[in-house]
Amino acid sequence: xxxxxxxxxxxxxxxxxxxxxxxxxxxxxxxxxxxxxxxxxxxxxxxxxxxxxxxxxxxxxxxxxxxxxxxxxxxxxxxxxxxxxxxxxxxxxxxxxxxxxxxxxxxxxxxxxxxxxxxxxxxxxxxxxxxxxxxxxxxxxxxxxxxxxxxxxxxxxxxxxxxxxxxxxxxxxxxxxxxxxxxxxxxxxxxxxxxxxxxxxxxxxxxxxxxxxxxxxxxxxxxxxxxxxxxxxxxxxxxxxxxxxxxxxxxxxxxxxxxxxxxxxxxxxxxxxxxxxxxxxxxxxxxxxxxxxxxxxxxxxxxxxxxxxxxxxxxxxxxxxxxxxxxxxxxxxxxxxxxxxxxxxxxxxxxxxxxxxxxxxxxxxxxxxxxxxxxxxxxxxxxxxxxxxxxxxxxxxxxxxxxxxxxxxxxxxxxxxxxxxxxxxxxxxxxxxxxxxxxxxxxxxxxxxxxxxxxxxxxxxxxxxxxxxxxxxxxxxxxxxxxxxxxxxxxxxxxxxxxxxxxxxxxxxxxxxxxxxxxxxxxxxxxxxxxxxxxxxxxxxxxxxxxxxxxxxxxxxxxxxxxxxxxxxxxxxxxxxxxxxxxxxxxxxxxxxxxxxxxxxxxxxxxxxxxxxxxxxxxxxxxxxxxxxxxxxxxxxxxxxxxxxxxxxxxxxxxxxxxxxxxxxxxxxxxxxxxxxxxxxxxxxxxxxxxxxxxxxxxxxxxxxxxxxxxxxxxxxxxxxxxx
Length: 724
Hints:
Methylamine Dehydrogenase, Chain H, Immunoglobulin-like, five-stranded antiparallel β-sheet
């Protein structure tokens, strides 16, 4: 009897699958980027549908996309649309100003959506009342489920779950839980087995998360208590027994749950369920026939068992779990994904079809994803869909895993591939008529925001090696040939697009000297000065007017030589090619070299004792080029210690020969100055004071004369100063 009930559940759940059309699974390859730009449109949430062949997703602006196979209008585009190999947006009923859809949930053949302001939208099969509209009429396009349909609603609806075959759930902002639809096993939770075509309140408050599994329902409270009800043949409720429950029943304890840690999310699958705690502990219970519980012993259980997730980085924890159809998914804080369980269709994304008994990190993604973390994941029937942090969508497996290319037959893929919305489109053109030697740009317009463009320049339809930037300068080999650029665009959510610019013949350009002036040279130093010129073909340089000893390289335009005379030299050169010529006129300035000799000139060559004179320094280089007045750059010294030197001013207190030396740039020059002694008043003689002290014995009279002489010297010094 138990086996019969299990078959009944799966028969009910999978009935639609037997009639489904084949889905295409191989996406187009991406192009590696440093980090993909934000996708346009940017997905924020997807639901693969655990028991469905349809997928729905929501973008950041609230647009709803659907794709896959539909029998009862679950694609939301009317009864005639039963297959979409490429995701497309669907029309929604009019919403309040500023409102938008924030979450979608796919059941076996119906879909629920909820908006930021709490409006619930429903569409698809309604044979068991799973749309909650009070009847059993199928809706092929989205309709609004009035808020009045939720008895005793407190707050607004913030979450919906339709993933449990043909029944539905909703949670309010105040923590109420509502359920409706198929109730064969008590999964509605109203203590009956009667299908409900309108929502029934089964939890009055405190819920922070819900999940509809196959024939069962789950709710987790703000304190971390998990309640379960419905079908329990294989222990999927986790309540410690295998008996069905018609009302919410608390699950068994979660082993190893530390103080302060609590369950924050639960996910019901086909025959098993998963939960994750606030500190990242993962738990599983129910059937383990394909390893979906993450235990190497393959042991089923009717109570939560902790799942070890190997290889987590420092500080990395699990934040989301998804129970699929006999397989499991976990997402971490760093945006990595772990998978385990059944893998017949490659749904685990591990590049094979072998089951896994323990969680394994997914490492292979399309290159266009390139480092962007995974922000959301959804486990489908036989596939997984993930959303990157930049809004791209990727899938593995089949049926709700990876679609988006309806040119391929149904075939599972064992690694994640792009789910693309459509081909990118835009235009490409040349910025100007192509001319040899003149830079040319590729003009682009109309491409989607977030598209990454690459370029291939072609000559006569064949790629030019290395010419892959957005600009290109035609070379001599291009002249006379057809030039064009091919622009290719890639984006996370859109197929590769391409546009080719109209080809144009490359013409030659006359030479044009770009150099405006020549830098100065130094006397006696060999110089090499390039002249920059544009133009097509082979350029030939010649000197029209060149200083003696200076030449120009005819192929490179480099002027070189050595000049010893300082000054300005006229230079005239000509550059020519098959497309014309250009003439340049320059002045080549040659600066003097380093100081080599000094000329030292005193302002008074015969000063008298006590006089002050000025020294002037004139410099020249090794080639006789004057360096001008270097006085302010010079230092001065004297061989007589008592001489007073301030700057270039020298004062002589004593009469004697004085050698004055000037030093500039490491070069020195000296001059001898004979200082005349000061004359003694009245005697016509000279009183010579030298730098050396002399012992003289004198009488009173002689001493008086000496004193008088000193007074005269002082007086003379004062008079000379006054006259100056």
